[in-house]
Amino acid sequence: MLNSERRLGPDIIRAIAIILVPTLHTFGYVPTLSNDLLSVKWSMYMALHYLALICVPLFITLTGALNRKKTLSFKYYTGILKVLVPYLFISVVTIVAMYVHTGEFSGIISSVRKILNFSANGYAWYVEMYIGLYLLIPFLNVMYNALGSRKNKLLLLITLIFTTALPYFVKSFAGISLSFDFIPDWWENFYPITYYFLGAYLSEYPPKIKKRYVLCILAASLLVPFAVNYHYTAKYGEHAWFIMNNYGCFSVLAATTCVWILFYEIKKAPKPISAIVKEISVCSFEMYLCSYIVDGCIYAYSNQIGSIAASLKIPMYFSMLFLVLLLSYITARITRLATVPISKGLVSIILKTHRNRTDATHKIADNEGQDTKIE
Fold first, then answer.
1. Which of 19, 79, 175, 340 is the most buried (most CB within 10 A)?
2. Residue ranges of domains in the chain
């Protein structure tokens, strides 16, 4: 999934995205947003939650930027093995880890079924989505490039934003008694395509906007959902999970675009920082899947020893988050020791076999052509 010639900007974005993944998942394990409502600490957690929502959009947008020139070919489709091999490996490890942790095992057939339907690992929905997106990329590129002009590509992007990002955003204002349910919302779950084309467009036509304006837009994209949620919580006495809590929401798209503009074009950084960023970026996909195992173990253990209440405190919260990231990286790095050689070997064998068959077919065709001439 990564280019051989690495660029710092995309690596930074990928590193930010993978750091925000466990940050977002933490809110599902620790009741940070259900306690101390309207307090300063609660407000900080809610703002962090809305920022963390850009993790998946950043990954998909980066996919659009790095793959917009891909074309339909046999070699292209072998690239999916770089995703499938680590997924299969980590899924097996997940099943084994859950057996060791809980003692539950549903049998080999059931385990195979879980791997195939992407339920063996709780975070594998992204893999399921990505496989479909990967298969579509050559065709999406044909459509995108056939538009020709910048104006036409921008119109495509605006249309997708209107159909996938705006509906959920405006419906969220029902939390403050404002109803905007007149925008068609059937295409809301089409947001991966929107982010793919967003990445393609931003990489082809980098926005020339001053950083201070970008920061202001980023702040506004976080402040709007924060304000609506704060109003709802003050009125009804509970946190509103339904308010702009969706990867495809317009506020999330705006924040994703801002972070992209801030970091994508960065080309230099101190060597230690560049090395750390690159290392995290290289392991990001495996870290994503491995974090499911780490999350399950750490937060289950915390619950057993009664330290969930302590984890609500800011120092403990970030300590647990750092531990999840560290252990996810270690398990991901170990995983890559096995999966990278396997995926590379499989790709090499498949391409070699395909090349040999193609050469054999051409020879047969040439021989038939010569026989025809002789006759």
1. 175
2. 23-273
This prediction has a pTM of: 0.91
Residue with tokens 């996909």: 285
173-219 confidence digits (pLDDT tens): 865 666 666 678 889 999 999 999 999 999 999 999 999 999 999 99
CA–CA distance, 331 with 262 (Å, rounded to integer): 30
Q: Which long-range contacts (CB under 8 A, 24 or more apart) does 119-122 make?
A: 120/91, 120/92, 120/94, 120/95, 121/87, 121/90, 121/91, 121/94, 121/289, 121/292, 121/293, 122/292, 122/296
> What is the dihedral angle through the alpha carbons of 266, 270, 275, 280, rounded to the nearest 10 degrees?
-50
CA distance 140 to 189: 17
Q: In one letter, which amino acid is 157?
A: L
Q: Torsions phi, psi of 103, nearest 5?
A: 80, 5
Question: What is the separation of C-alpha 158 from the centre of its chain, rounded to a whole number of angstroms?
Answer: 22
CB contact at 8 A, 201 and 65: no
Count CB-CB contacts under 10 A for residue 92.
Answer: 15
